[in-house]
Amino acid sequence: MQLEQSGYRFADRRYAVPTLTRLLLVLILLGGLGYGAIYALANLVEPRKHEITIRVKKDGFGR
Q1: Which of 2, 8, 30, 42 could form a disulfide with 16 if both were Cys (CB 3.0 to 4.6 A apart)?
Q2: What gap in Å lies between CA 15 and CA 1, rounded to an integer?
Q3: How many helices (H) does the chain have, and how many strands (E)?
Q4: What's the distance, CA 41 to chain centroid?
Q5: CA-CA-CA-CA torsion for 6, 18, 3, 12, nearest 10 degrees?
Q6: In sequence order, what are the residues at sequence separation of 6 or more whose Cβ sits closer than 8 angstroms to the Cβ of residue 32?
Q7: Where are the transmembrane segments (predicted)?
Q8: For the chain, the helix, strand and coil percentages under 3-state DSSP, each to the nearest 5
Q9: How far, CA to CA in Å, does 17 sit from each of 24, 30, 40, 52, 57?
Q10: How distant is the alpha carbon of residue 47 from its chain centre?
Q11: pLDDT tens-digit profile of 1-39?
């Protein structure tokens, strides 16, 4: 088997992964993890219900 330099990190092409494929794989993996985190927050976390009181100043009304 003759090894050649062709821009691959490893000289043996059976184990070399092109840079674009590796980039796409990482982006898809990160997107899947983000989607899973948002899905888990939306469906598995129950919000706490409590009353909130906000005081509004009268300065902005009645101009």
Answers
A1: 8
A2: 14
A3: 1, 0
A4: 14
A5: 170
A6: none
A7: 20-42
A8: 45, 0, 55
A9: 11, 18, 32, 55, 62
A10: 23
A11: 455 555 555 555 666 678 998 999 999 999 999 999 999
Chain-centroid distance of CA 62 in Å reads 47
Alpha-carbon distance of 47 to 42, in angstroms, equals 10
Domain housing 42: 1-63
Which residue is it, tokens 């821009």?
A: 7
DSSP track, 4-51: --SS-SSSSTTS---HHHHHHHHHHHHHHHHHHHHHHHHHHPPPPP--
Tokens representing residue 18 in the block: 């092109």
CA 32 from chain centre, in angstroms, equals 7
